[in-house]
Amino acid sequence: MERQVEGVVEAQLPSGLYRVSIDGKTAITAHIGGGLERNFIRLLVGDRVVVELTARDRTRGRIVRKR
């Protein structure tokens, strides 16, 4: 089951990855989900996003929405 959390984009990494800060202290690596990718949504450092985390690995996620 996926859990959705809100965070802030800290850095843009190579290969379409982003470092997202959750709660101001925890940083995860995330990629853009399919819907955002198809609509060419541009993410910049400082943007607030909603990230889906899986139960298997809490250090990686998928960005599903931009706030």
Describe this structure in words.
The protein is mainly beta and 67 residues long. The chain is built from 1 helix and 5 strands. The chain has one helix at residues 34-38, and strands at residues 3-13, 17-22, 26-32, 48-53, 60-66. It has a 5-stranded mixed barrel with strand order 1-2-3-5-4. The longest helix is centred in the middle third of the chain and has 5 residues, at 34-38. The chain starts with a strand and ends with a strand. The model has no long low-confidence stretch (mean pLDDT 89).
Topology overview:
Layout: E1 3-13, E2 17-22, E3 26-32, H1 34-38, E4 48-53, E5 60-66
Parallel strand pairs: 3-5
Antiparallel strand pairs: 1-2, 1-4, 2-3, 4-5
